[in-house]
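Technical note accompanying the year-one report. For the benefit of new consortium partners, we illustrate the data format agreed upon in the data management plan: each record pairs a sequence with a structure-token string. No post-processing was applied to the example shown here.
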Amino acid sequence: MDERVVGLQASYWVWHAAQQGVSDARVLLSKLMLSCPNALANRWAQEAFAVRAALENSSHRFSGSTDLLLMAHRVLVGNQLDLSQAEMLLVDMLTVQHEHGAVIDIREHLPRSSPRLIQIETLEQRKTLMLAGRAYSAAFNKEIVDEGNLRQRRYRLEKLFGLLGL
């Protein structure tokens, strides 16, 4: 089987079995995929709270900036999936979500990194990934987005946090 991330197909079928109530499948799924359902205990919780408040406030300064808006969605996804800073900044946001989980694979940018499979367990996780996917799809359909390299993305993250007073 030609899989970019080893175990993705297996995790999908184990997830289906777990959805149908097979208790052994739940145990196996916990071994195949990471779990991080509590966003308040994850990394980026404080930052995500500030970003969410700014997104809900339509008069916020970065609401018109595509770059900062996309970075805001990266922070929200990073919090929901408990990502490291490198993962949050480098993951391809258009290919993260799968039906049963999220695939975090940044080997294209950092070859020594290992891909991770993360369960999507809560409605909030699914909603955050869906909204981020929409924002990225809209931005890339307009073909005005070049997120740049890691250094440029870090700069935008610092700029976003500066605007939010973090």
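Partners are asked to follow this layout when depositing records. The chain has a mean pLDDT of 85.
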